[in-house]
Amino acid sequence: MSKLKIYILLVVFVAISSCAVSQSHPKLILTQKGVTEIRAQLNQLPVLQSSVQKAVSFVEEEMEKGIDVPVPKDMAGGYTHNRHKKNFLVMQKAGVLFQITEEEKYAVFVRDMLLSYAKMYPTLGLHPANRSYAPGKIFWQNLNDANWLVYTSQAYDCIYDWLSLKERKKLEKDLFRPFADHLSVDSPQFYNRVHNHSTWGNAAVGMIGLVMDDQELIDRAFYGLKSDNIKADQKDNDGGLIKMQGDGKAGFFAQLDHLFSPDGYYTEGPYYQRYAMYPFVMFAEAIENCKPEVKIFDYRDGLLLKAVETLLNLTDVNGLFFPINDAQKGMSYLSRELVSSVNIVYHFGGKDSGLLSVAEKQGQVMLDDTGLSVAKAIKEGKKTNYKKRSANYKDGALGTEGALGILRAGEGDKEVCLVMKNTSQGMGHGHFDKLSFSLYDNMGEVLPDYGCARYVNIEQKFGGGYLKENNTWAKQTVAHNTLVVNGESHFGGSTDTGNKFHSDPFVFDATNENIQIVSAKELNAYPGVEMHRTLALITNENFEKPLLLDVFRATSDKENQYELPYNFFGQLLSTNYKYELPEVLKPMGDAHGYQHLRLEAEGQSETNNAKLTWFVNDRFYSITSFVSTDDKLQLVRSGANDPKFNLRRDPAFFIKKNPQKNALFVSVVEAHGKYDRVTEFADNAFSSISKVDVLVDSEDYTAVSFQDKKENSWMLILANKDASKGAKHELQINGADFKWNGAFHFVLSK
Amino acid sequence: MSKLKIYILLVVFVAISSCAVSQSHPKLILTQKGVTEIRAQLNQLPVLQSSVQKAVSFVEEEMEKGIDVPVPKDMAGGYTHNRHKKNFLVMQKAGVLFQITEEEKYAVFVRDMLLSYAKMYPTLGLHPANRSYAPGKIFWQNLNDANWLVYTSQAYDCIYDWLSLKERKKLEKDLFRPFADHLSVDSPQFYNRVHNHSTWGNAAVGMIGLVMDDQELIDRAFYGLKSDNIKADQKDNDGGLIKMQGDGKAGFFAQLDHLFSPDGYYTEGPYYQRYAMYPFVMFAEAIENCKPEVKIFDYRDGLLLKAVETLLNLTDVNGLFFPINDAQKGMSYLSRELVSSVNIVYHFGGKDSGLLSVAEKQGQVMLDDTGLSVAKAIKEGKKTNYKKRSANYKDGALGTEGALGILRAGEGDKEVCLVMKNTSQGMGHGHFDKLSFSLYDNMGEVLPDYGCARYVNIEQKFGGGYLKENNTWAKQTVAHNTLVVNGESHFGGSTDTGNKFHSDPFVFDATNENIQIVSAKELNAYPGVEMHRTLALITNENFEKPLLLDVFRATSDKENQYELPYNFFGQLLSTNYKYELPEVLKPMGDAHGYQHLRLEAEGQSETNNAKLTWFVNDRFYSITSFVSTDDKLQLVRSGANDPKFNLRRDPAFFIKKNPQKNALFVSVVEAHGKYDRVTEFADNAFSSISKVDVLVDSEDYTAVSFQDKKENSWMLILANKDASKGAKHELQINGADFKWNGAFHFVLSK
């Protein structure tokens, strides 16, 4: 630290004397004005200072190891992959440190590494792994090569003026220009899509173009390649079509037009939105710095700012992204992409003081003008709590392809959050999980989404890539908390079919604190079956925490087998019904994910209610379901047919109905009580629900009720056909008349 | 808080005016001198203040609910059980608050609750549950009744002087005296043992005797009942014999003489030692306060002080007790018993400044003279780090019944700790796990002990009591990291047999930083089989963290099937051998714990080394074992024959040898690397060990070696028969001569 302080002092003086000399670089992310201010204010701004210190530690440690630019060989997780990834991260940071500290050693390090790349690059063919639809030269896939250039163009910008003209010429001729060409003209199937891969490609080409002042590259980044000869049925490694529907345009503006909904929701889901955000916000910052006349942050009604706000709201209590679609769990708003996003949105957006508390949790800021803004505002005490909220994020470029519903109720240790997926398929990384939901409380996941079957960058697991089980299990319907009909996944498990459809949001109302509700229909997942699910978070002083009420209706002209899984974690404590254990455990099927499940217990209820209580993280949870005495109540566990032990052994509770035309599933889920392992006290370890009932179920109306142990009783009536707010409804239930306006009516009926 | 501050000020003045009036109570735990000082210094001592505030919140909340003294009915976890437990906790705290704050409402509350008990008690027969070998009247077992009296005698002491003579007479006649009699003369099988139950009984009777100045009760507490008529084969609920070997004495001094080893180790293990500690230290404090002439803390060479130090050292990096024998995981030195213990040992012991950092983590102090000492010392900045250490704790009253070996190496995120169980059986709560070990790193358990099969105070799980699976699984040998011979548990699974024997410590040497070693033999677990295990923690700059080397030798005159389990957590990443998966999963046996296991994969190595790498808590772990190509390498998982889902589904790796006379198992276990879910970087994800080899294995010597990927190689030679330090040894291995003194010789042989 003391070393740092000394040069900070030095820097301040040097800065004052040197800032008058106008130079053209840095201009991309760091600006000359920004550098001057950072130098001047660094030692007053703790979070900026610690971010610099962190960068210094990282860069110094790598500099000590010496420069290593190995000939590309390995897949993700392997040595050459990791080395090249570290190289671009360290060059970017070293470039910034050169600007901030003016210590030449950093510039020398970046230059020498770049020259090593410039020496090797012309000798490289495609990466030898030959596993990608669009191979890179440095990495097995062009996507990673684009990452490299997005970061490295920042490093180049930082030492541009310091380099000799000859060095610049060599780097541009042997490295940057051919690199940008390989990403674009040589790889149209990678570059000319509307896809997060292409966004990285566009940003990479655009950012190096801005640094080099190369208008051709800038245009190519903004508008794509003029021609590409991509075939209509060409697909990527994830099975996604290269050319989606759309207006045929490509380039950065096409990404902005098509990849986000008007609400800033990204159809692949938050895990990929996080990944995609970095090139969006960084390239946008670069455009704003170099070409302010584009007004990039105003584009599409401030879309980029909205996208970041949306992304931050798609996190649980710990800041972890909801792992819908292909998503590795554990990724959070602490990621470097979100550091950039939050800083950039704060600086170029409305200076939302809530963002400062996210930035504080991130514990670091960008080393640029935007990070400076954030660090100054934190220092000035402007921080307020970041308030997450209930929201219904429309999906699709026009906002017409379904929605992702988020309901939040309760505060502090009573917080409960629900995510309901009524969106479109989510492209190649989408799962077959129409109308699925996941439930969170203040400890994290309660009824989880499995996430993806992948160990990113862990080489032992298929080089860190998607595992076979991602397709055979994680994507399948039965792995989710949603209805399985006739033992098959939605759309028969076809992504191409799924891509054609989306669910239809029916009701979203988060205005009433007592009951927040989200409801949607799905008409295409199973031809001939109409699915309609309504989920409500109910807050009432008689319950410790908000309850989840789940009403799932399926109707059809022919008999089907309906099955509703609830995935959970931890240890079963009790059931209110008897069950049998199979003598041996075997796979429950041979396709659609059932091949990965084993039945551990099966029973039937002697009443119309089945209750399950379980225990995890020293908390208690219960589900109480209205069932028929014929319904099979199954406890199952994942992990069958898993020769590489790729899957977790997670439990689930299935309600399986005998073949019938229509089915209605009604459940109340409670998070309740806690256990203290030190005092060994168990508080509120039992469910409060004494009864769940169905009062009416017709084409027009469904009315369900539930009761607590003190015999308080609540009723929810749903209008199944007409969700309009103005519609007047009237219904007689058990001799009593109920009249209301709108899609639902919630009554405390003690 | 503001309310508190006001009365603290009031209190200071009142204290000054009232302290001159000498009264006889409180004198048990709180003393009059202590009360005066606490009142005077409270608002200068944050941790004392917050402890008072915590007590105020707890007591006020309970006072608001009103007094409830229900007729006893429920088992542990049920309402009346929990209510009576809360009652004694709240009375004790309210009594103390009356003394500290002088607010009469607390005394009124205690008095009224005591009078309710005095009204009910004479009407009670034995608790209706009828499940204990020694039923209480308030609780299902006398043990809990004794808990009640240990706490309540403190409450009574605090309001003694404030009560009218008539009230005192009523309480003593209808409640305390008959209560003490029920615990003792009415329940000799509970009271007159050498056992933690009896310690509670002795302390309860003694503490109320001290408050009431009843010499008969005090003598009964110190020396037990004169006659008890307990039959020689009478057993308790856990299958433990009521009368153990010993000198036939009973009472508190007999507990001190027999329950602890000279090193302060308690034969049942740390979980029960923690539980047992409270009556020991509290009664000792009471004796010291009321009868200082006894010099109780000097008894047996300062045994009680040693016992607390030992207990604190029997914790992992998070302060969790090593869960050997029957122990619920999660119990830690944050428990109230350890708060008392630490405070009392600090105050009456040598004022060890390391204890202050434990007290600070506990975040609370006792509201008595000892807590005051700790709070003052913390305030004065006397705290130093509490340094845990390697130690070999002798077991048995005379220290002659085996030992528990603890090795610790590495610091910070490199910390590794090993616990090897070479003790006696541990009485009724003991497990059949001779020479077993568990391994910890800075994240907690790596190769775990299962702990007990019990959910303490969780009513849904058999009323919170020990589950059937505690006997059929948790106690069995195969549930532990130790050798199973011929598919049976040690001592055929008989506690009575196990109680007769102990393992024989062979070597313990923690003096060398490079290699710390613990070795023991077991001659009785399997008649005719000699087991000899040596475990070493090896610290070397070529490895990220200290390694574990495990050398397990079994010798016999006849052929046996030898099997060595390693229990782990998390997800398998890779093996270096091929395996087959069974089509269906079924129990692996029908007894000795195998009925609860299912085989998930079985293979054989084509070389003499088998390697397994797994992943948990974002850390990597590997085991590399010297095996024969005939050895069956099994991946198994617990949870079979578990109709109530009482067991966790934990994985284990088994090395199973074909029948043979002698067997040698040699393994190296590495904790290595880490994964970051936010950056998605995997560091050091691969094992560093390239080879494990056996060079010599004779009656006299065993020499094993291991090698890293850089071809550094290490060798450990063990003298199998003579462990004496002075002994000279000489051995030729592959043509090279090795000479050394003592039980082992460790060589870096590159």
The assigned structural class of chain A equals alpha+beta
The largest β sheet of chain A comes out as: 9 strands, antiparallel
Provide the CATH top-level class of the largest domain in chain A. Mainly Beta
Distance between the termini of chain A: 66 Å
Helix content of chain A: 25-40%
Question: Any chance you could write out the topology, listing elements then pairs?
Answer:
Two copies of one chain form a homodimer.
Chain A: H1 2-18, H2 32-41, H3 46-65, H4 79-101, H5 104-120, H6 142-159, H7 165-183, H8 188-191, H9 196-212, H10 215-223, H11 252-258, H12 270-290, H13 299-313, H14 336-348, H15 355-362, H16 369-379, E1 391-394, E2 403-409, E3 416-422, E4 436-441, E5 444-447, H17 468-474, E6 484-485, H18 495-498, E7 504-509, E8 515-522, E9 529-538, E10 547-556, E11 562-567, E12 571-575, E13 578-580, E14 597-604, E15 609-616, E16 619-626, E17 632-638, E18 651-656, E19 663-676, E20 681-683, E21 689-697, E22 701-708, E23 713-719, E24 728-733, E25 736-741, E26 744-748
Antiparallel strand pairs in A: 1-2, 2-3, 3-4, 4-5, 6-11, 7-8, 8-9, 9-10, 10-19, 11-18, 12-15, 13-14, 14-17, 15-16, 16-19, 17-18, 19-20, 21-22, 22-23, 23-26, 24-25
Helix pairs in contact in A: 1-2, 3-4, 4-5, 4-6, 5-6, 5-7, 6-7, 6-9, 7-9, 9-10, 9-12, 12-13, 12-14, 13-14, 14-15, 14-16
